[in-house]
């Protein structure tokens, strides 16, 4: 009881896993919990056999007890059972990885993410701004000590991120999404998420990229779809009028 005094019941059932804010993160949490259940089940069986051997097969005389080497059923048991356990874990891991990496054919929102030393730029190619230099609604941060860029996305929509870097390798990480992907020069990486709740989160670069790597942060605002569309309309009007992004 003392060991878990600082934990809520929800934290305890997550077994140290962050509280996921995406459907993909929830899938990985389920895999994590299933792996722990399997590990504890195997552990209890092994501990039970050890205790059973210690209690009921203690040395009682100098006579050599019956030996079980070359016992075909036992050897088959401890060969086949581990194989089945590994195969089941591999199956669920591959299935969940395929789901997490799956790309939607028609995402609701596309965000072009550009990493640079030491900040981020977020562009929305579906929201054009005729006559502006950027061409799209664009939110650009400034390296430290400038203000953090803000990534705005709607909840319960499919969001596609397209990741590129202008200089060195970075990594795009939002802890509550329970996912990160490298941002590589001259190579575009992709991933989709479906965010399940509104809120404000802090994003990070998780690849050492230079002196201000630890300060290469950004804010994530997950809003309702109606708030998102209103925000995009405001940004389109601002950028069209030459306002500050």
Tell me about this structure:
With 245 residues, the chain is α+β, with helices and mostly antiparallel strands. It folds into two domains: 18-58 and 65-101; 109-240, Immunoglobulin-like (Sandwich), CATH 2.60.40.420. 35% of the residues lie in helices and 27% in strands. It has helices at 9-14, 23-56, 72-101, 225-240, and strands at 109-116, 119-128, 136-140, 150-154, 158-165, 170-174, 179-183, 189-194, 199-205, 217-223. Helix 2 (23-56) runs antiparallel to helix 3. Residues 1-6 have low confidence and may be disordered.
Compute the CA-based radius of gyration. 26 Å
In percent, how much strand structure appears in the residues? 25-35%
The CATH homologous superfamily of the largest domain is named: Cupredoxins -  blue copper proteins
Q: What would you say the CATH architecture of the largest domain is?
A: Sandwich
* Tally of domains: 2
pLDDT average, as an integer?
87
Q: CATH topology of the largest domain, what is it called?
A: Immunoglobulin-like
The number of E-state strands comes to 10
Topology:
Elements lengths: L8 H6 L8 H34 L15 H30 L7 E8 L2 E10 L7 E5 L9 E5 L3 E8 L4 E5 L4 E5 L5 E6 L4 E7 L11 E7 L1 H16 L5
Parallel strand pairs: 1-5, 4-10
Antiparallel strand pairs: 1-2, 2-3, 5-8, 6-7, 6-9, 9-10
For this entry, give a set of tags:
single chain, 245 residues, alpha+beta, Immunoglobulin-like, 2 domains, five-stranded mixed beta sheet, 4 helices, 10 strands, elongated, disordered N terminus
